[in-house]
Design goal:
With 401 residues, this protein is of the alpha/beta class. Helices cover 43% and strands 15% of the residues.
Length: 401
């Protein structure tokens, strides 16, 4: 069968767009790892100190997680080959949902193929034309896209601004039902949302609260249960979405946890849940092992190492005169306002001939971050050592010239 030809004008338009992306220094070239994910990775036969992974607890290739996944692969096969409500629900799914519910102190939990899908399924299902959603301006793309799928009235408040949240909730006062949604941790900045204060303002206006805790689950709070635990507001948050693809093993899958009737409605109506294959049992089993670790004394110790690594790196970089965004999260943005210089510095850090350990880190520029706010987003892991932090800071100093 002869392949269809794309219209010549379409091809030209696409090529022009790609040229513009490259000219702006925003082209995202992918680099293939030749090793397991971890604090050190191999790329092009070279070992790099890895500073751009979401593997916050160092569990992506840990023996316990890998063994659990391997055992489930042997026992249950490669995949479910079905959506959940047909023949795709496995006892592993139900066990993990129950364990997340217990961990977060909610009523019920529903698994999705990813947290992007989880956020994509919430708003259209729960909110109609008579309802309103009030969203922090720096919320993750999955929240933004999920809101776009709904017919709800849309309001946006300035990042972490309680005063503007108040203004937007007042503007939404005539809505039948209002949902305030915020990231627990904002992924480009590492800022933590003031969730207790967000809840207080929302309650004043009779609004529900949802938090996406993808960059908080496993690492914030006494048991790693995220920002609701950190701020003591677990009983005041209606919905928590999160991922299994970061601290909890780093594979794939997401969830929404919260009030029982809301979760049940998502099971009945959320399109990404109803029309996507179930998360493979081996991934679920590995995630269960990761969650068990996060809740154990070993998890407490890992979070302490993670905090120590972040404090050490921040201190060394600040002493060296780098501009960092403030905070305590293991996301540490190193600000380099000029986009081209940010990309060039990332390349210098990764050069094996620099005289320092090669460092794998990525530059972020507009439109991912605001114009003039380019950065190298460093992400640290409990699997890193203090020596790794010293080597990373030394490499940054050398790369700066």
């Amino acid at each position: 069968m002869e392949r269809a030809v794309i219209d010549e004008s379409t091809t030209t338009d696409v090529e022009n767009t790609l040229t513009e992306i490259r000219a702006a220094g925003l082209f995202k070239a992918e680099r293939a790892l030749e090793s397991p994910q971890g604090p050190r990775v191999q790329i092009d036969d070279t070992e790099f100190l890895n500073l751009c992974t979401n593997d916050y607890l160092g569990l992506a290739s840990s023996a316990g997680v890998v063994t659990a996944a391997h055992d489930a692969l042997d026992a249950y096969g490669f995949g479910m080959a079905s959506v959940r409500f047909i023949s795709g629900t496995h006892v592993e799914h139900q066990a993990l949902e129950d364990e997340i519910t217990d961990w977060l102190g909610t009523d019920d939990t529903i698994l999705f193929p990813s947290c992007f899908d989880a956020n994509g399924g919430v708003f259209e299902t729960l909110l109609g034309e008579e309802d309103a959603v009030v969203s922090d301006e720096l919320n993750h793309a999955s929240i933004i896209d999920g809101i776009r799928l709904s017919k709800a009235q849309r309001f946006r408040y300035k990042n972490r601004s309680l005063a503007d949240l108040e203004v937007q909730l007042t503007a939404a006062a005539k809505a039948r039902r209002t949902l305030v949604v915020t990231d627990g941790v904002f992924s480009m900045d590492g800022y933590i949302a003031p969730l207790d204060q967000v809840c207080a303002v929302a309650e004043k206006h009779g609004a529900m609260v949802m938090v996406d805790d993808s960059h908080a689950g496993g690492i914030l709070g006494d048991t790693g249960a995220g920002t609701p635990e950190l701020f003591g507001v677990r009983d005041r948050v209606d919905l928590v979405s999160g991922t299994l693809g970061k601290a909890l093993g780093g594979a794939s899958g997401g969830y929404v946890s919260g009030r029982g009737p809301l979760i049940e409605l998502l099971r009945q109506r959320a399109r990404p849940y109803l029309f996507s294959n179930a998360v493979p049992p081996m991934v679920v089993a590995g995630s269960r092992a990761a969650l068990s670790f996060a809740r154990s004394e070993a998890g407490v110790e890992a979070r302490a190492r993670l905090a120590a690594n972040a404090a050490r790196f921040r201190s060394l970089m600040a002493d060296a005169g780098f501009e960092l965004l403030s905070g305590e999260h293991p996301i540490v943005p190193v600000m380099i306002p000029d986009a081209e210089e940010a990309v060039a510095m990332a390349a210098r850090l990764g050069s094996p001939g620099s005289g320092q350990v090669p460092v794998y880190v990525r530059a972020f520029a507009y439109p991912v971050v605001p114009m003039g706010r380019s950065r190298l987003r460093v992400q640290l892991s409990a699997a890193h050592t203090i020596a790794d932090m010293d080597a990373a800071a030394a490499a940054f100093i050398a790369a700066r010239g």
